[in-house]
Amino acid sequence: MTNTRRKGFFSQGLYSLMNGMADKMSSNPQQKSFFNPGENCWQVMTTDRAAFLVDGEDYYRAVSEAFEAAQRSIYILGWDVDSRVRLCRDSEEEETFGQLLNRLARDNPQLKIYVLEWDFAVFYSLEREFWSLFSIGWMTHERVHFELDDSHPAGASQHQKIIVVDDHLAFVGGFDLASFRWDTSEHRPQHPQRCDNDTQYGPVHDVQMLVTGEIAQELGELARWRWERATGESLSTAEHEAKDLWPASVSVDFSQQPLASYLLGRWLGRDAVQKLAGKKVNQLRRKLARRGWLTIALIRVVPIAPFTVVNMVAGASLISARSFIIGTVVGMCPGILAIMIFEEGLERALRNPDWETLGLALLAMVGGVLVLVVGKQLLLKKSERDHD
Questions:
Q1: Cys-Cys with 75: which of 164, 320, 329, 340 at CB 3.0–4.6 Å?
Q2: Is residue 94 predicted with pLDDT exceeding 70?
Q3: How many domains does the chain have?
Q4: Element containing residue 104 per DSSP (H, E)
Q5: Could you tell me the residue range of the domain that residue 350 belongs to?
Q6: Are residues 314 and 175 in the same domain?
């Protein structure tokens, strides 16, 4: 089980908390953001969806899937780029990064690919693909454009690691598409697939963020600015219909969907939600209306209806956004704590059961049951007070 698949369990609640904090800050003009463009960050933008890709196995596979879905443009900015690296390593026959770019450009006449690599200092040449200008720039399709970027002060480097696909999806973080970066999250001392250019290498750890929406468009503008600054060539934004480019192997860590479906339920109203979700949802709606955030929290611990349905019913029940956010965060906390404390033990229990790991798994289950029991008692006490 990879890190990106594990984290999706609790990230929706965290995002709701962030939304609540943002709303609070926007309602208080005296409250300043931690991030100030031009001082400690470049831009403050919103994203429709986001995920953390931890380690090369997840990141390289996600990049490969996004490239396959590209329609008009791919921008690759890197400190290092190596055409010989294999993004997917399910077998020894997987195509290299250079072969992938060449095939995509050949098969899609509308696709243009731009690769901008730092024009590295000579003492880095032993660990890099020395003739990258030849292997990527000259030996690939005419719509694969490659340039070396030396537009920086003396002694500096171009260290941004950014990929933008169709201005709809972007990767940004610490990973280059280069040799000696790929690894699994297990970081075994020895791994047969951790071999590039006939050279075995040790464990490697890094992280990349995947984003969509407004922030991806802005990163596309940055990529075009970097290209023009390095080459003098101005690139135009390719107009095309929006397409869902989200890689199938990646779970969403942050999304605007929970709050959006809550607001949709409030806008549609009780009757419309009842028609959409069915009469049985009325019971859930009444409980939500009476007990608010506590019921939301318990439903997050043990879902009794799909996530989106609960959000819409909560909105239609006129639960305040504050109660919805608090209940979501509280309900997600047991899962967050279980992952933080027992993640490695639970994974070992699945892979190689023994008394220690089985004990950890049992402890996690007991903790979940205790949360339910305490929550039920709180609901009963609140219900008695309501009847008094």
A1: 164
A2: yes
A3: 2
A4: helix 97-107
A5: 259-387
A6: no
